[in-house]
Each structure stands twice: as structure tokens, then as C-alpha cells.
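Attaching the record inline, Q. Sequence:
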Amino acid sequence: MKLGTFPHRDSRRFVRGLGLPPADSIRDLLPAIEERTGRPIRLMPAPAGTGRGLCGMWIRASGVDYVFVHPETSRFHQDHIIAHELGHILRNHRGGPASGPVNPVPDRLVPTLDPAVARMMLGRSDYEHRDEQEAELIGSYLQQHVHRRPVHRITDRVAQTLLRLGR
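Structure, as predicted:
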């Protein structure tokens, strides 16, 4: 299935149906998503040498979801990667053919994580499979949610600025 034929409407509807609060960044949405999934999410820096082409990774361990992001990339790119991985988390993707072998093994990423405890691991490197396409679309709509500024929030900020200038 080509990315262009994937059901954008379904992903947009899914994100709208989450009832997420207004947020200034994708990271600000983490508490709402943790509440929805019932699992804490830990953002972790991906260590150097995690493989060519691997932008982000999600590891589901017992009790916690780890999202790994390369710290050397821009904040904008990191937020995009986080949003994509949140798409996997929200849709509870299971891996399989959409995730090939990921190197390095989880113990190099989280030294305190017993590899036997890692329930599932998804590494993002391409968009060939349905789960990757869906996570990418959901991530994009999560980013749109963050960057959408309701009129009343903009009006409040303008009013605050004008009040400060009028002092």
C-alpha cells in the first residue's frame, strides 16, 4: 500500500477522538497520552551507534513505554519522531513485519532493562508497512493538534502583550 492511498481521514478522526487538551508541544501531550494508555512514557536519548537510518524507537517493557530519540537532531525533528512513536503507542502496534531487527539490543539502550522484560520493540526506519504509515499519519495529526492555535488562545496572548505594553 502506498502512503498516498492510506486512509488519512481515519487517522485524523482517531486523533480528534482522543480529546487531547491544547498543548504547546508534543511533549506537553505526554501526560494525557499516559493517562489514556495507563502507562508511563519515558523519553530517552538514543545512544550513538544505534544503526543507520534509525530515527526513533519505541520499546514496550512491563509497566513503561520507552521512546528513544537521537539527541543530535533538531528539536523540530525530535518532536516529529516522538509524535510518530506516540502513534505506535496509541494504536498499540505489535511489531512483526513492520519492524525488522533493531540494533542495538535493548540492554544497550536502557542498561536497567532486562531484555526478557521488553515486551515489544519497534524501530522506525521506513514507511513500507501499514503500521509505519499509520503511525506517521497519526504523528502528523498530533503535531497539527499541537500547532493549531484556537482563536481564544491567540486573543489571550495578544491581550496580555497589549496590557504589558500599556503599563
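The CA atoms of residues 20 and 32 lie 7 Å apart. The chain has one domain: 3-166.

More tomorrow.
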